[in-house]
Amino acid sequence: MKALLEQSGKDLTKADSIASGVLKKIAGFRELTIILIILVIGAGLSIASPHFFSVNNFKAIALALSTDSIIVIGMTLVLISGGIDLSVGSVMGLAGILTARLWQTYNLNIVVAALIGLLAAVFVGFLNGLFIGKVGVNPFIVTMATMGMCRGLDYVITNGTPISVTNMPAAFRTLGTGLILDILPVLVLIMLIIAVISDYTLRRSSIARKVFYIGSSEKAAILSGINAQNVKMGVYIVSSALAGIAGILTIARFGVAPATTGEPTAMMTISGAVIGGASMLGGEGTVLGSILGIVLMNFIANGIVMLNISVNWTQFVTGAVLMIAVTIDYLMHKDK
């Protein structure tokens, strides 16, 4: 009996090792895997719905994922550093809502109003970085607190009533609704520019390497002379700044600023980043992988609409995908 139990234990250990090895092999070409999944889902949806494979629908998907893609870049940095940022959605809302209120009520120049909105977002990132990097408070707690504070300000500024800004200057609205050569949305181009610059920086710069070192082993990074506190502060400032840019672009796109702007964004961007290869334990992640994760999430959301399934299922599916992605991430790294 004892021998049987020992053999059973060995078999389970071997099976676990094989499963872990398979997951690690998948991670080795994660981006290619996501592309294949996107293609399979796209093919299935094009068969299920004649409206999916159309120029207008792809434009709609591209516009929908653009702001999330901008935010997921910052979220990727945060996850690589070993942290998390739950405040991005509320910060996104704050920047856009503040911009709209300053322009509508106080007649500020739209550029000045947008800069103030962006500075407010940067300040939230500074607070996150200060308490996480300098004071040493848990990132989950800090960003949950600033999430609540910013969402509260969103409701205070709007007084619970959406701010209509459809008559904003045409040049500003072009950022969210304009087309280049009647094909490429300006918003998508802005996202692509930010993504390319961020991807290159993350792969090539010495500052980015410090973020990876801190996420892999903060103690070792400190011993090697890296100022982990300053790097963490910079990471959270970048995350909030990108969320602020996304919020301002969202207002330019829709011409309205409700207090609920950005509510599902944190879950969406965390899901996209983890699906794309960013580890919840830190030290791993790419901009390209995270954006592909966002594309996948938006394909799923679009598919729900195309198949005439209630949109109320969208957040449920997002949460389920996040749970699956986090579980896979845990299984891949639990032996480290």
From TrEMBL:
Membrane topology (UniProt): Multi-pass membrane protein
Compartments, record wording: Cell membrane
GO CC terms: plasma membrane
InterPro entries: ABC_transp_permease (IPR001851)
GO molecular function: transmembrane transporter activity
PANTHER family to which the protein is assigned, alphabetical: ABC TRANSPORTER PERMEASE PROTEIN YPHD-RELATED-RELATED, RIBOSE IMPORT PERMEASE PROTEIN RBSC
Descriptive protein name: Monosaccharide ABC transporter membrane protein (CUT2 family)
